[in-house]
């Protein structure tokens, strides 16, 4: 990628985009926050877009800093939590289950 | 968008004018002892939230560790489906919010599946074989279960609130995705059903899942699109979820074909969407539209390290593959000298495994088969259960057959012994004992009975002595009647002839 | 003020194990100190008075019974960053969303501290979910730097570092994702170590960025840090990224180092970490440190790590991406805060997350959601992962030329509270020199190098070593510390002013 591959500083992200991202991230941000975040994120994105300056086409990405592989556990049971422990921190519980407000979306 | 759905098109018309393209995604819950990423049990039907730990509840700070047995099962499924096993791959996080998913991301081998590019030859009723390409098989984790309270029939719509049980969360799943299956024409519903059936049999034979569609340990999504016949243009597909029986697979494909043809005939366009199969009506309905298009923001799971199965490990696992169910059937067919039709009847009746088990318990194949397809099939029918649901084991049937072969029982008595076993009276030998069903082979008792019968019919004795041997039948009948059928008729006849000589 | 609180952990442990001082006295002295100064410093979010005294009593019992101590640090009090789960104390991660949460399990690190007989005094303040460089992003108010209460103690582990500098605890635990152990150590004149990634279990460490997070020891001397390092490090089967290898012999290395001979050790000065953007007093202290290292016999060479200048940019893409996924689980369904605003689960989730997360957490969640979006993934997250590879290669090449690398730990000394809190990018620049080690997974530590001339505040020397190369790092750190203390007539920490009340 050429040096200018990343989005330009300034105008990298719009207020509407930030609003959309907040919805995706389940954050009911206020209008005032949107104003502040949009400006701040624009500056931050301008700075981090510098990664685009690095010529790295043939470079493999690193997802794990230390190269381990094939770490498994045997198929053996371990003691877990009791129902009481599991539900102890629940905002609401009923019949041994977590009680949550009604769910609008379809199951995935 | 249209609000009224166009009418369904007659099936023959659909296939005359459109070409269906199928795709099937099957989720199989593995029957490992523990979950995909933690040591919690996977047992079905436990009290809610009793098979959970910090990891499968997604508690802050918890971490996953991959279950080795699940990886082995995935590799074995991949090998059985003629897939290549990826030499290196990572889990990814599929990010979306849903209350049944404790971390709000699903850990899945989304784009680096462990098994890719395989196939399975699917045999239809009439013997035609369709090769179904396998795109991939990958590992992931199941979600928890929601109980919707306050709505009609526990359905999500109109519910006031929901109750969540995470016992199922984290149970290992293998998702098996076919390549697009074109060119099946009118047989598309049949191909879909046959594929799922055969896949179920295959996975069962591997012993890695109990593949119970009724319990959700095997679930199927059906992708379908239509293109105008001869156009070669691929149509827009729909994905139908909640298809939870073999029959539903067939019905869902058929219905989607008829529905999509209706939309296309009316000049409409197929919406790429998720639909839900309605078991009762046999129709599909659209899922709820999402306000924003879903972007799962996949990225490699940093908490798990890559899986790199060595060639040695893969070969070792290949060595553990059992004979494939259809190969096995072919062998049985040859060994027992069955016609294709006879074999299919046995398979359809669910008798094949029972007969094999009976043979394995020592019975000759012919007799084992005859018992299961005749008398026992009648009994199952009368009780309205599957053959396998009868309260008699192959070993018990084999014992009855052995008792007949040794002359301890005749066929009539044997049926009574089977009745006794089915009635819960115990093992065959106990039934014989309790009901007093043994063939009378003690000559002294028989001789007495024969002499009594001969004395009662002197005229017949005269005939026999005069050489009319066939007259002995009358005496045999009398002896059998006197002994309530427990005498060995052949022996009785011999005794009669002896006494009259 | 009890003299017990000014002892090093090593000295205190010797007195406790010899019976000269009881563990209860030692704990009580620290509890008294906390009561005396923590109103000003605010290092602690929770003080576990009873549990601490109970543990100390057990240690005393063992001493009286003549049992060997559970570890060389048995009975020594410790301040635990509030990001590790503890069954007997709340775990909040400095966030409102976890206010009052009582985990049902102990982190592996917590369990190891307990098994070693170390007394956990309480949980320390931090930037929310370890995101920040000043501890101002704690939902429970900022921690103040004991050197100057108007200034920040660094972050995110400002609570742990301040507790050490204020003599509220001789030992502490921190976590380091991009400098959160080392930068607070630098600005408070204490010692902090980020072990090799995978060296200390993350099980029970509430994740900030999973591929970068690493727990580690904080202390007032290098030997104390080494003693604590050996307690908490080592393989954990519950953490897939935990390295299954022996823990480097860091205590022995620290003892050897303290003898003051570094001949044969090559020290690499990273050209890209220094110069412009670094406060003059920081640069002066660093230059003096290099001279001191040379005097100890080390060979000082210059190395170049050309991709380090992109480290900050790569870090602020990778970290928010992982954060956006890791913090998704805080959704009001299973634990933590629930804001009952709205009728649906979706609305309650969004309202709770809005109310429960502070501005920095929200910024990073949004930034990460953006960086992982399908249209931007390659340009941002994907490219950042490649830069990560290049930074690892830079380290590998540099470690060919040098046994350890050095730089100033942070570009500036402690800045005034409030100065950068509304300028995220300025705040991020604090981590310029510490971030590369996290990206590459190698080890790093900060030891006090002196006070900056212009403001009289502590400066830290960063020493970096290859993966599992902690021994040489501790050796150099201990040698430097001993030489500095000898030259200056005592440890730097002795010059911290008494907390003004």
UniProtKB/TrEMBL annotation, chain A:
Pfam families: GatC (PF02686). The keyword Transport does not apply. SUPFAM superfamilies: Glu-tRNAGln amidotransferase C subunit. Keywords: ATP-binding, Ligase, Nucleotide-binding, Protein biosynthesis. It catalyses: L-aspartyl-tRNA(Asn) + L-glutamine + ATP + H2O = L-asparaginyl-tRNA(Asn) + L-glutamate + ADP + phosphate + 2 H(+); L-glutamyl-tRNA(Gln) + L-glutamine + ATP + H2O = L-glutaminyl-tRNA(Gln) + L-glutamate + ADP + phosphate + H(+). It comes from the Bacteria. Its EC number is 6.3.5.-. Belongs to the GatC family. HAMAP family: GatC. Allows the formation of correctly charged Asn-tRNA(Asn) or Gln-tRNA(Gln) through the transamidation of misacylated Asp-tRNA(Asn) or Glu-tRNA(Gln) in organisms which lack either or both of asparaginyl-tRNA or glutaminyl-tRNA synthetases. The reaction takes place in the presence of glutamine and ATP through an activated phospho-Asp-tRNA(Asn) or phospho-Glu-tRNA(Gln). PANTHER family: GLUTAMYL-TRNA(GLN) AMIDOTRANSFERASE SUBUNIT C, MITOCHONDRIAL. Heterotrimer of A, B and C subunits. This is Aspartyl/glutamyl-tRNA(Asn/Gln) amidotransferase subunit C. It comes from Pseudonocardia yuanmonensis. The lineage of its organism: Bacteria, Bacillati, Actinomycetota, Actinomycetes, Pseudonocardiales.
UniProtKB/TrEMBL annotation, chain B:
This is Aspartyl/glutamyl-tRNA(Asn/Gln) amidotransferase subunit B. It holds the Pfam family GatB_Yqey. It catalyses: L-aspartyl-tRNA(Asn) + L-glutamine + ATP + H2O = L-asparaginyl-tRNA(Asn) + L-glutamate + ADP + phosphate + 2 H(+); L-glutamyl-tRNA(Gln) + L-glutamine + ATP + H2O = L-glutaminyl-tRNA(Gln) + L-glutamate + ADP + phosphate + H(+). Heterotrimer of A, B and C subunits. Residues 353-500 form the Asn/Gln amidotransferase domain. Allows the formation of correctly charged Asn-tRNA(Asn) or Gln-tRNA(Gln) through the transamidation of misacylated Asp-tRNA(Asn) or Glu-tRNA(Gln) in organisms which lack either or both of asparaginyl-tRNA or glutaminyl-tRNA synthetases. The reaction takes place in the presence of glutamine and ATP through an activated phospho-Asp-tRNA(Asn) or phospho-Glu-tRNA(Gln). The gene is gatB. PANTHER family: GLUTAMYL-TRNA GLN AMIDOTRANSFERASE SUBUNIT B MITOCHONDRIAL AND PROKARYOTIC PET112-RELATED, GLUTAMYL-TRNA(GLN) AMIDOTRANSFERASE SUBUNIT B, MITOCHONDRIAL. InterPro entries: Asn/Gln-tRNA_amidoTrfase_suB/E (IPR017959), Asn/Gln-tRNA_Trfase_suB/E_cat (IPR006075), Asn/Gln_amidotransferase (IPR018027), Asn/Gln_tRNA_amidoTrase-B-like (IPR003789), GatB (IPR004413), GatB_Yqey_C_2 (IPR023168), Gln_synth/guanido_kin_cat_dom (IPR014746). Keywords: ATP-binding, Ligase, Nucleotide-binding, Protein biosynthesis. Residues 273-294 are annotated as: Disordered. Belongs to the GatB/GatE family. GatB subfamily. Its EC number is 6.3.5.-. It comes from the Bacteria. HAMAP family: GatB (MF_00121).
TrEMBL record, chain C:
The keyword Nuclease does not apply. Residues 25-471 form the Amidase domain. Its EC number is 6.3.5.7. The active site is at 81 (charge relay system), 156 (charge relay system), 180 (acyl-ester intermediate). It is an enzyme of class 6 (ligase). It holds the Pfam family Amidase. It catalyses: L-glutamyl-tRNA(Gln) + L-glutamine + ATP + H2O = L-glutaminyl-tRNA(Gln) + L-glutamate + ADP + phosphate + H(+). Gene3D superfamilies: Amidase signature (AS) domain. Keywords: ATP-binding, Ligase, Nucleotide-binding, Protein biosynthesis. InterPro entries: Amidase, Amidase_CS, Amidase_dom, AS_sf, GatA. HAMAP family: GatA. Belongs to the amidase family. GatA subfamily. Allows the formation of correctly charged Gln-tRNA(Gln) through the transamidation of misacylated Glu-tRNA(Gln) in organisms which lack glutaminyl-tRNA synthetase. The reaction takes place in the presence of glutamine and ATP through an activated gamma-phospho-Glu-tRNA(Gln). Heterotrimer of A, B and C subunits. This is Glutamyl-tRNA(Gln) amidotransferase subunit A. It comes from Pseudonocardia yuanmonensis.
